[in-house]
Amino acid sequence: MKLCRFLYFAFALLLFSLTGQAQTSNAPLISGHFTQVKLAQLLEQLEKQSGYRFYYDTLQFDSLKIDLEVKDQTLQAVLEKVFKNTGINYAIDQQKNVFISKGVVVQTALPGGYFGNTGEKRKDTLIVNTEVEDRKDETVNPNIALLENKLFTIGEVNSANTGGITVAGYVRDAKTGEPVIGASVYIENPRIGVFTDQYGYYSINLPKGRHTLLVQSIGMRDTKRLLLVQGDGKLNIETQSEVLALKRVIVSAEKASNIKSLQMGVQRIDIKTIKQVPVAFGEADVLKVVLTMPGVKSVGEASTGLNVRGGSADQNLILFNDATIYNPSHFFGMFSAFNPEVVKDVELYKSSIPAKYGGRLSSVLDINSREGNKKNISGSAGVGLLTSRINVEGPLIKDRSSFIIGARTTYANWLLNLLPDQYKNSKAGFYDINLNINHQINKKNTLYLTGYLSNDRFNLNSDTAYNYGNKNISVKWKHIFNNRMYALATVGYDHYQYSISSEKNPVNAYKLGFDINQAYFKTHFNYNINSKHTMEFGVNSIFYKLHPGSYGPTGKESIVVKETMQAEQALETALYISDKYTVTPDLSFEGGLRYSMYNFFGPYNLNNYAPGLPKTEDNLLGTTPYEKGKILNTYSGPEIRLSGRFALSTTASIKAGYNTQRQYIHLLSNTAAMAPTDIWKLSDPNIKPQYGDQISLGFYKNFKSNTIETSVEVYYKRIKDYLDYKSGAVLILNQHIETDVVNTQGKAYGVELLIKKLTGKFNGWISYTYSRTQLKMDDPTAGDFINQGKYYPANYDKPNDFTFIGNYKFSHRFSVSLNTNYSTGRPITLPIGRFYYAGAERTLYADRNAYRIPDYFRTDFSMNIEGNHKIHQKTHNSFSIGVYNLLGRKNPYSVYYVSENGVVNGYKLSIFGSPIPYINFNIRF
Amino acid sequence: MKKILCFLIPLAFAISCKEAYNVPSPSPPTGYLVVEGFINSGDGPTVITLSRTTKLYDSVDIVYEYRAQVSIEGENSETFALSETGNGTYTSEQLSLNSNEKYRIHIRTQDGKEYQSDFAAVKSTPPIDSISWKRENGVGIYINTHDPLNNTRYYQWKYEETWEFHAAFPSSLKYSLDETQHPYAVEYRLPTQGTDTLIYKCYQNINSTSITLGSSEKLAEDKIFLPLLHIDPGTEQISVLYSIHVRQYALSRQAYLFFDKIKKNTEGLGSIFDAQPSDLQGNVHCISNPSEIVVGFVEVSQEQDKRIFISRDQVPDWGYATGCVEIALDNNKDSIHKYGEDLMPTMPIKIGPFNSIVTFHAAPRICVDCTLRGSNKRPAFWP
């Protein structure tokens, strides 16, 4: 209860000091008669009458009873009278705060010249003289709650720690009890810092003695704790979210974390930033915002397939709370599959991928959902033109377990009804549901349950119906052994399926199905050895079962033969270990090794090809059956993850990294965009895993007390055995798919520039990337060369890419956002000539991707209008109104030539070829 | 998947998302040999057409290849020469091929280069079971066929549509022209004063321009029931009598894939999830220069055909309308000069003394003279 009381005062103080309410300059006079009242009651009265605020430790004074009679006296006189001969001291500062303490005098003003050395001029600085001898850096801001002034003693005095001492705990939002992810927890002298993980957990090694532990995080107010560190111990820290701010608040968005963190090529975006960026139809979209980051591209507007640093769309590991999402898009790629109301933040690893992740070449996109509010039931809802969403969250057991459930659905059918008659039978829709439950069993054990379900269906003019969906569930257990070590164990199941059916022609009526299932088990240990070494190690294991296609009749008349492609099964296991080594505060390294092993299992009938010859149908010799559980083949190899950082100053650092990756599952596609009907294929004896390595170097510099971050990163990447399709490939229901794909070797390189300002009235970022991605197929034993064996640009090779995202806050209730994007047109295969065949002109194609579509340029604009910010009203409303593609530029998605009535005509296809206005209404309760 | 495109247009409130576009960069001169046709193992001659690829934008439509030497070679070294028959065509006599042999085409072009196709086995084509049609707003025409031996599997169809149509208005009149070739009066076309059927009843004839393929690969029986084409309601095709003549060819799997690729490359593009176009490799190669691109796939096959008729009576409420309007004119020079110069007279309205025409009807030429849009030569097969 003591804590609650403190908290109350913390809130009160914040409110009070920040609202800057005008007080009369004349000191109010106090009158009253009190007999045997507790100090608390008395002070409450005094607060009422005087308008001053009191801060004190309730426990310290709860036995004190007071008799008092005063009439028209000043506060000072009253206090003088009350505390006379009690040994209790009081101090009043200029903000009308009164600090009451026993034995210690709170000084509200500094001795002159106290800051002489730094030359800073600060007003209203307060010193808390505690039992400890005075220390020069013991300066704290008076406008921060007493929590920050309290000295926390960590550990036993006599603990015999020779090296560093570990302090660990959770950083949580004081209001909702949710963990604060990625908060920077650090001390400044010596410079030691860590970040909270996705559970808000931190573990920091500190030398013995007094420290000021600083905590900074996006969207939360900075806070600090005074520590007297004597031995290992725990400290949970609650921080205030920004919602309380009624006056200007400086939010330190991971101040300096880009300088201090070891990782490079990492982008973290929180949902607040995501929601500010205008997108088509106004639905805050995680993936669309990730696309504005340097080094991230997509082939076109109706695609959420990401191409990170020259990687293809399947080379990204998309994790939603540990679950792998195979198809992250809804509605032809116009929406991403993640409900913005449930997402907390997104992390994209482009180069230093931690050793705990693996299985994809290019990047890891880690999407974290929020944990539910642990204190109250709350929720939000939004209504847009095409979708609506709702989420509800709240405690199951107060302060210990909570849930959050979010759902989204679309009602685009009304729109389809407005279409011309020929589409009147069209239907399209999707929904997704998220559920997260977390339960703190005790201080050392926490359980997390995550469920995700999504489904998309569309049916254009009742001809062919498409359907696809993700299903994911996982349970995670976090166990804290001690301050230095914790472990995570996760089990889960991911499922992705699609199906296509057509019943128009009864004879051929069919249904085609495809699905991927994977069950996984992960354990992860984090061991904080001492202040210089932090180790992580663990095991990941994924069992894949893939049904590459089943094709069967529907309806009585159908004579379609049921054809089921044989299932593929494999086990991917990886062991990893990594160590973060802080040599000096300025120099640190992280080295990781991941050893992955992949076994492809029977039952399977393996196609045999004549050795040394291209894998073609002509060279197919026969098949070898393998029994259930029999290992057909094994691929394995080490993956290296290295990174290093050297701080040039407190605001600049240089980082370098090298990492290698292996990928055992491939997406086969011969379409430009990631289509819902693309199939995934496991590596088998005929299809080699992909391998890639990347070397990168970055320079980071912050300006204006870390509010402006800039970075330059360069990279060079090699890709081995990336699967590209052969000309005219048949990918669906192909019993010998290896004859239609070909291994290509690739290289990618680029430079990425980013200037980011996430604070202030004007915030946003500018990014520019120059990059190239080229592939080559010159292996004569693999079949015909592509483009005569020369390097050819990959589909997503867009050398120049520029993005500007800007937000300007006119007030807390009104802000505008503008974003602009320019990129080189993507490569495309265009005809080089024409000929006359089968009664019509036909086009002649030769080199793949030899031309480019015209450049892309788009500007979007949005306005966010919020209702009032009174904290105690039942609901909070906000509107967002905007225009996507403000200039109405007809950006080409593709250029193509078709033979129509015997004549070849060229066309340019734009997806959003005119300005698209939108409006969204959101409500929070 | 093409529908997605059109579907997205209104979804995005876009007025148009597809617009004509021509690549600004000039395409290279190509001039690769294009070989079209098949070695006919059934009745009838073998016709091979040779042409050249052209620039993407070129003033000429088709560049035929003249003065080539074309022959059919059997594995057993028998040869049959083809003779040039104009417009790039080379035609053989009726061939008597051995169905157990394989055959190929051999070409020596004027510039001395030699080309040949891969040897191909003789494929027999099952007869067309029926061509059926049903009302689907307009008319949908379907092909039905099957191979009792279940080994044809891949099919191609070509078709030719022919229809009779009538001018909007019958005409018994024509203008009399003065010495400056300007009309000044009307006169009867025929001594009988009846209507002139030569400009009233015409025939239109078009060949299929798309590649129509079918496969029973995934079916239990080698049985095909596929839509061939759709005739929109109210169109001229079935305004009187319509006929479709369908020719069916059995294909090998390789040939099927080749045609399918041409089809995808030239007909099936333009939507978001379409496969990307790819280069084309047929079974004809340049022996003189193996890296030279040659377009074409020559098979040994036979042709099966069938014709059906659909008359106006069979499609009630077809809703055909010509959109033509007649006006009445006085039979004098001023009136004709003022209103009727660009029209054609149709029928007299008012007959004066001595059978003279006082007023008459006239309509735009296109509404009166059917030969402007078709031929008045009745096809031999017309009932």
Account of the 3D structure:
- The complex is a heterodimer of chains A (925) and B (383).
- Chain A folds into 2 domains: 1-114, Phage tail protein beta-alpha-beta fold (3-Layer(bab) Sandwich); 266-924, TonB-dependent receptor, beta-barrel domain (Maltoporin, Chain A, Beta Barrel).
- Helices cover 7% and strands 53% of the residues of chain A.
- The longest helix of chain A is centred in the first third of the chain and has 18 residues, at 2-19.
- The radius of gyration of chain A is 31 Å and the shape is elongated.
- Residues 1-25, 111-144 and 243-256 of chain A have low confidence and may be disordered.
- At the A-B interface, β52, β53, β57 and β58 of A face α1, β1, β19 and α2 of B.
First-residue to last-residue Cα separation of chain B? 41 Å
Largest sheet of chain A: 22 strands, antiparallel, barrel
Radius of gyration of chain A: 31 Å
Beta-strand segment tally of chain A = 59
Rg of chain B, rounded, reads 27 Å
Attribute tags:
heterodimer, A: 925 residues, mainly beta, Phage tail protein beta-alpha-beta fold, Maltoporin, Chain A, 2 domains, 22-stranded antiparallel beta barrel, 5-stranded mixed beta sheet, 8 helices, 59 strands, B: 383 residues, 11-stranded mixed beta sheet, 5-stranded antiparallel beta sheet, 4 helices, 27 strands, 9% helix, disordered N terminus, transport (chain A), TonB-dep_rcpt-like (chain A)
